[in-house]
Amino acid sequence: MSRDFLMLDGHETSRLLDSMRARCDPLADAVIQELFAHGQVGSANALMKHLVAHETVALEQMPEPLRSYFAHSGRMPEWVDPELLHEGQAMFNRCGPLAVVALVCAALPTCYAGAQGVQVLHLTARMEKDILRRVVETAQLVVDVMGPGGLSPGGWGIRDAQKVRLMHAAVRYLVHRSGRWNPEWGQPVNQEDMAGTLLTFSVVTLRALVKLGYTPTRREAQAYYHAWRLVGFLMGVDERLLPERVEEGNALADIIFSRVFAPSEEGRAMTSVLIERLDHLLPGHIFEGVSASLIRYLVGDSTADLLAVPPSDGALSLLEPLRALGRLMEEGSDGGGMMARVCERFGRRLLKSIVWVGRGGERPPFRIPDVLRESWRVEEREGYPAGAA
């Protein structure tokens, strides 16, 4: 998809997005359907548990159709620009702690504002436990994608995208079989909802970074967006919903959000639990209880009202250390006392909390590449060597 998207009139855009609510992911859906049809679900479950625990497995060890899926779904599109990918990841190196804050406090709540798409999350969530896990897994995905080499052949980000794509297909299959899905919501995890979610990782995050004091250059914004555009391709998002330029991505995000945002009991319930869990993850002292104010500040009052986020009650003044951190990162500061204090108070403590919470179950501990761990001053979890992969 190119800039032609912005040349569509309102009716054409609506028709395109309406059609995308009925469209899913033929490649991944066919794999899941074949596994169920041929009674291979047991072996597939064992394989997925192995992937969760070990995160990698050789193609020759996989049964068909999984072997073909992983081989095909990892191919790169012709439009990938390695230089842009590198620049986007370099920006993440500079502002990674703030980017994680943006993902957790802006991207996730934005997803909950989609009254139809949130139904899948609500149906498959065990609320408190799953939302905390989703926070950690979201942070891990971002670090894997935007870390050095994450989108190179065999990189962690590519592996994550392939597995998420397959899990989306499994969710679609199981939700349909549950008998609890309302056809008026469109298909579960449909193309419009997938595109909207992807845009929270790119343009919503970029917008939140600006509010946090880090204003990317046009080149940086395009580079960061380009990386997530590639992730969308790997996750099976229709290329018609993957605009080339970040300006187009911003426009598409606004159009999709205007279509899908609405108040819902499910979205409000998930947001309430998210705020509660963030209060346990966010650093204490001056930031204690500030998660609701941070979400309202980053997503804006109209979206926050849809989600029944409590009013800020003047707590926004507590966010100045975050904005100071963003400005220092933007200016390229090499640290200094103020930078160290701000990082200690928020960015590094948030990441440290995520690292120490862990990913749960059989999942390996939270992984941060050595170069990022050193840059952000985040210690490894005891018993898990730094940089282990």
Automatic annotation (TrEMBL):
Domain ER-bound oxygenase mpaB/mpaB'/Rubber oxygenase catalytic as annotated: residue spans: 100-328
InterPro entries: Lcp-like, MPAB/Lcp_cat_dom
Pfam families linked: MPAB_Lcp_cat
GO-annotated molecular function: oxidoreductase activity
PANTHER family hit by this protein: ER-BOUND OXYGENASE MPAB_MPAB'_RUBBER OXYGENASE CATALYTIC DOMAIN-CONTAINING PROTEIN, SECRETED PROTEIN-RELATED
Name recorded for this polypeptide: ER-bound oxygenase mpaB/mpaB'/Rubber oxygenase catalytic domain-containing protein
Organism: Melittangium boletus DSM 14713
Lineage: Bacteria, Pseudomonadati, Myxococcota, Myxococcia, Myxococcales
